[in-house]
Specification:
6 helices, two-stranded antiparallel ribbon, 5-stranded parallel sheet, 196 residues, alpha/beta
Length: 196
């Protein structure tokens, strides 16, 4: 049975296009063990200097220990998953702050990546990632899409290269465009599910 980690990052709850798509994807995998982390509804702490010292230095205070424990828990969820579904709506040309905080908390030297003679080496292997991206305009393959290259780069940095993207574009153009975007994205999801 497959272990799936779902990372929701939209602030729009049930109105979110990406949340609707990940719910649809999960409906196609009824036997999977699913862990869902809604970063929009339950955001992680802001990654500041205290958090950086707690994760990369010597945690001394109770706050440091709590931040380190949070990071350890997030990484354990990631390592336990066979498939990770990342909901990545575009906000102002990039990923939501909530998803960036998650990335900051799992980017741990000597835990999820390390540096060696040949540069950076990812330490997370054997994972499949499905990114569900929603754009208000049309950005796929354009210079204005910073979501795709950023996520590909970060995931490869920690060792994950089996990454597929599903796009719902032009959702800012109105109800007909949303319906068309959702239908196209769901058709792509149907094809992906066959390989899971």
């Amino acid at each position: 049975m497959s272990n799936i980690l779902v990372l929701k990052s939209s602030i729009l709850a049930e109105h979110s296009q990406t949340n609707q798509l990940s719910d649809y994807l999960l409906s196609k995998l009824p036997d999977a063990n699913v862990v869902e982390r809604d970063l929009g509804a339950n955001p992680l702490p802001y990654f500041d200097g205290v958090a950086a010292n707690a994760l990369r230095g010597e945690p001394k205070t109770e706050q440091d220990q709590a931040l380190l424990a949070l990071s350890d828990s997030l990484i354990a969820e990631l390592k336990n998953a066979d498939t990770i579904i990342i909901n990545a709506p575009m906000y102002n040309f990039n990923i939501p702050t909530q998803l960036k905080s998650y990335i900051d908390f799992i980017a741990r030297p000597r835990v999820t990546f390390q540096y060696g003679a040949n540069g950076a080496e990812g330490l997370i292997h054997g994972k499949k990632v499905i990114v569900l991206a929603a754009f208000g305009g049309i950005h796929q393959g354009q210079a204005t899409d910073f979501v795709t290259p950023y996520l590909k780069t970060f995931l490869a940095f920690i060792g994950i290269t089996d990454v597929q993207f599903v796009y719902a574009e032009a959702i800012g153009f109105g109800p007909d465009a949303i319906a068309k975007a959702q239908a196209g994205a769901k058709a792509k999801i149907d094809n992906i599910v066959k390989s899971l």
